[in-house]
Write a structure and sequence with these properties.
Distance between the termini: 53 Å
Radius of gyration: 22 Å
Shape: elongated
Structural class: alpha/beta
Strand order of the largest sheet: 4-5-6-7-8
Number of strands: 8
Low-confidence stretches: 221-225
Oligomer: single chain
Strand content: 5-15%
Mean pLDDT: 83
Helix content: 40-55%
Order of helices and strands: EHEEHHHEEHEEEHH
Largest sheet: 5 strands, mixed
Length: 252
């Protein structure tokens, strides 16, 4: 039995897959991020050194077998942070190599492929909600700032949406749970990784005056236009689940 340890990156995982085939590991006990490994005294430990060239070779092979859409599905599984993501991705890649002429990601009779499909739907749903419910707040430096706390690591999946939609203003989207985000400065849209978690104790003190006035006006408008007699809380929660209310100005 072999346990493979990698650095937790997508390139690292693809390098790991490359090593599985290069060293012909058939009895892989687990693939694990280095900090989460649970040692088995009977398992051989293989520490993977991430190599972009190896990862690229795996991607090229996958593109031939399952296409860019298939690769995107495996990326969603990776971003889901599911406890079995490494096992699921390895299984899918093995099947794509064994059956290169089949669309293996539609073989829902396979337990792993079925779970991949379910994970992708969940990640897509969370991605959509992050683009629908996120609210930007103007800060004193003129940057529009949005904080999110998604169930899955969807920042890479929503980057293009915000870049395409808000090209005329500087903005940041920050993931509270994972302590990183995306920053657009009118030219580039890059990931940023603060050394420390952002301090939100004084968060509202950094609001631009316009933002404070806007929020008061919006909350007042929301109250005035809310027709009590037509209130349907069950339907409202169905379309806007309560866990997303923290993003909405009118709910605070």
């Amino acid at each position: 039995m072999t346990t493979l340890l990698y650095d937790g990156s997508f390139d690292g995982l693809l390098t790991t897959v490359f090593d599985v085939f290069e060293y012909r590991y058939q009895d892989v006990e687990m693939i694990s991020k280095e900090k989460f490994v649970h040692e088995n005294m009977f398992a051989e430990i293989h520490e993977v050194i991430t190599q972009h060239e190896k990862a690229e070779r795996v991607l090229n092979k996958l593109e031939k077998n399952i296409g860019k859409l298939g690769i995107h599905q495996l990326l969603k599984v990776f971003l889901s942070e599911d406890t079995e993501l490494e096992k699921l991705i390895l299984s899918a890649i093995r099947q794509s190599i064994q059956h290169p002429d089949e669309n293996i990601l539609q073989n829902y009779t396979d337990e792993n492929i079925l779970k991949i499909s379910k994970i992708c739907k969940s990640v897509d749903r969370e991605r959509h909600r992050m683009t629908a419910f996120v609210r930007f707040e103007k800060m004193q430096d003129g940057v529009f700032f949005a904080k999110i706390d998604p169930d899955f690591n969807v920042i890479p999946l929503i980057r293009k949406h915000f870049k395409d939609r808000y090209q005329d203003q500087k903005w940041m989207v920050y993931d509270l749970r994972r302590n990183y985000g995306i920053l657009y400065n009118l030219e580039n849209c890059d990931f940023f990784y603060p050394e420390e978690k952002l301090n939100f104790n004084q968060y509202q003190e950094k609001f631009h005056d316009e933002e404070q006035n806007y929020q008061k006006l919006w909350q007042r408008y929301f109250v005035k236009t809310n027709i009590v007699e037509r209130k349907n809380m069950k339907l409202h929660v169905q379309h806007v689940p309560k866990r997303y209310w923290k993003y909405l100005t009118e709910k605070n």
